[in-house]
Each structure stands twice: as structure tokens, then as C-alpha cells.
Design a protein that fits this description.
6 helices, mainly alpha, two-stranded antiparallel sheet, elongated, about 75% helix
């Protein structure tokens, strides 16, 4: 069981890296779209209608994908004051409680994002010609990824792996 968890963690580490690269590519793509819009507006004097909506769509994707990677790599915001006051034995319990609440939040992202996507599937973003639901897909995908990454961390913690230390993620994925 533990070997399966560790191999799954290595796979998820690669998935996380791929997602981070996709988010980085999205940042570059959005920058290119905005630069194109500025060039067309101020040099050619004819700004395309799709650039603003396209840049916002790309931005929402790379922000939500980056947030999912941040959850896996533990770059998300936290309130760690209690960790400095309480004994070290409390750390896994507090991290576990935090993971449960993050999982519930991510599950809410999936549920409510799906409701929005279903509700707005019949309407379109005029300048892009895409269903309005495409605006909500990053929320759903990010929520699913967060749930998977948090479930991975909780399973590793239950298996006795050192997921709560600062270098735990790299220790597990390099094994």
C-alpha cells in the first residue's frame, strides 16, 4: 500500500510540474495577447475585440491552475502562529484539520463551479464565440486538482510519511 502511495505521489508530482508549466505558458500567452492588443490599438489604431476577453480567459486559467499547484507544494497562505506555540506533536493534527477544510473548500469549488457551468452552457461569450461556461471551467479543474492533491497529502500523512516538514514534498517525490 505504501509503495502504491509513493508511486502515486511521484506521478502527481509530475502532473503538478506539468500544470505549473501550463500555467507559466498561460502567463506568457496572456502577455502576448495584451501586447498584441496594445500594438493594434496604439500603432494600427484598430484594436481587435477578442483580445480583452481572451486575455481574461487565459488569466483565469493560469491563476486557478497555479493555485492548485500551490496547494500541492504548500505555497498557499496559512496561519501558522499556533504552530510556534504548541508542541511539535500538534503539527500533524493542525495540518490535518487544515487539509480537511481545504478539501471541503475545493469540493465546493467543483460543486458550485459545475452548477455555474451547467447554468450558463447555453449562453455565449460574444467576442470569443465560446459558451460562457468556459469561464467557469478553470474553477472546476482547479477544484478537482486541489481535491486530488489534498487527498494525496492526507493519505501520505496517514501512512506515516513526513508530509508536514518543510522539505517533505521533495523527499517523497525523489524516493
Amino acid at each position: 500500500m505504501k509503495d502504491w502511495l509513493l508511486s502515486t505521489s511521484r506521478v502527481l508530482s509530475r502532473v503538478s510540474l506539468l500544470i505549473m508549466w501550463l500555467a507559466g505558458f498561460g502567463l506568457v500567452a496572456m502577455t502576448a495577447v495584451v501586447a498584441y492588443q496594445v500594438f493594434m490599438r496604439f500603432v494600427i489604431n484598430s484594436s481587435p475585440a477578442w483580445t480583452e476577453a481572451g486575455a481574461i480567459m487565459i488569466m483565469s486559467w493560469f491563476i486557478f491552475l497555479g493555485a492548485a499547484v500551490g496547494v500541492r507544494e504548500k505555497f498557499h497562505m496559512g496561519f501558522d502562529v499556533l504552530l510556534y506555540v504548541l508542541p511539535d506533536s500538534a503539527l500533524p493534527w493542525l495540518r490535518g484539520i487544515s487539509d480537511i477544510f481545504m478539501f471541503l473548500f475545493a469540493a465546493g469549488m467543483v460543486f458550485y463551479g459545475s452548477e455555474l457551468a451547467i447554468r450558463f452552457w447555453s449562453t455565449q461569450i460574444p467576442v470569443l464565440g465560446l459558451p460562457t461556461s468556459f469561464t467557469y471551467f478553470p474553477i472546476i479543474v482547479s477544484g478537482v486538482l486541489m481535491c486530488v492533491f489534498i487527498a494525496e497529502r492526507m493519505a501520505l500523512r496517514l501512512a506515516g510519511e513526513p508530509v508536514d516538514s518543510a522539505s517533505a514534498t521533495s523527499e517523497i517525490t525523489e524516493v
